[in-house]
Amino acid sequence: MNVFRLSGDVSHLLAILILLMKIWKTRSCAGISGKSQILFALVYTTRYLDLFTSFISPYNTAMKVFFIASSYATIYLIYLKFKATYDRNHDTFRMEFLVLPVLVLAFVVNHDFTPLEILWTFSIYLESVAILPQLFMVSKTGQAETITSHYLFALGMYRALYIVNWVYRYYFEGFYDLIAIIAGVVQTVLYCDFFYLYVTKVLKGKQLTLPA
Amino acid sequence: ELEPLDKDEL
């Protein structure tokens, strides 16, 4: 565990807490893509099945359990508790366009052809594109609430910090995992346009709006 | 290196 990895985890944790707080405090999930949240729940469920097969550390177990539990709690808030505020007309990205190609890729490009390893690979690939329904929704409505922008920024920074962690681990530990690295770079690149808007608008006190 | 099923990173 190095400082970049830890910062990445903290950023990820912060993103989830910002999202839950936003929905809970405003009693509304307006502007949030339920589809991205379903994809994230699928990501954590398929990745953390090793909770049943191996124990690494209390930290590792606690974080995995938190990510799984919070993803289902978010889905509950969007689709049940505050479903009247869910903006389904703007959440029109087709999940199967992401899940099916990613599933095929996980069967073809993986470290080991075993069920758990294929599911882990699937979750790494799926995570890299899981934010697309949310970004699609923002581009469709042309705007995002400031709190939603903070959520997206923290979520984007998490994988960006993991990349720095992988560079560090490559140099100091000789460890690298090409599947995680390539997927992590794809994931971070998808946020670049948003990062630009965040820095040029949100950090200057303006709401995030896209040119028409 | 980590074993394939021993995933420390999240």
Can you walk me through this structure?
The complex is a heterodimer of chains A (212) and B (10). Chain A is 71% helix and 2% strand. Chain A is mainly α. Chain A is globular. Chain B is mostly loops and 10 residues long. The mean pLDDT of chain B is 67. The chains are: A mainly alpha (212), B little secondary structure (10). The A-B interface holds A 5, 9, 12, 47, 50, 53-54, 56-57, 60, 63-64, 67, 111-112, 114, 116-117, 120, 162, 165, 175, 180 and B 1-2, 4-10.
Compact summary:
The complex is a heterodimer of chains A (212) and B (10). Chain A is an all-alpha fold.
Task: Detail the topology: elements first, then pairings.
The complex is a heterodimer of chains A (212) and B (10).
Chain A: H1 3-26, H2 34-47, H3 58-81, H4 96-108, H5 115-129, H6 132-141, E1 143-144, H7 146-173, H8 178-200, E2 208-209
Antiparallel strand pairs in A: 1-2
Helix pairs in contact in A: 1-3, 1-7, 2-3, 2-5, 4-5, 5-8, 7-8
Chain B: no helix or strand
Class of secondary structure makeup of chain B: little secondary structure
Beta-strand residue percentage of chain B:
under 5%
Tell me roughly what share of residues is in helical segments of chain B.
Answer: under 10%
How is the main sheet of chain A built?
2 strands, antiparallel
Give me the count of strands of chain A: 2
- Indicate the mean pLDDT of chain A: 96
Number of domains of chain A: 1
Per DSSP, the total helix count of chain B is: 0
Average pLDDT reading of chain B = 67
Structural class of chain A: mainly alpha
Rounded radius of gyration of chain B (Å): 6 Å
Radius of gyration of chain A: 17 Å
InterPro entries (chain A): ER_ret_rcpt
Membrane topology (chain A): Multi-pass membrane protein
Main location (chain A): endoplasmic reticulum
Transmembrane segments (chain A): 62-80, 92-113, 119-139, 151-172, 178-199
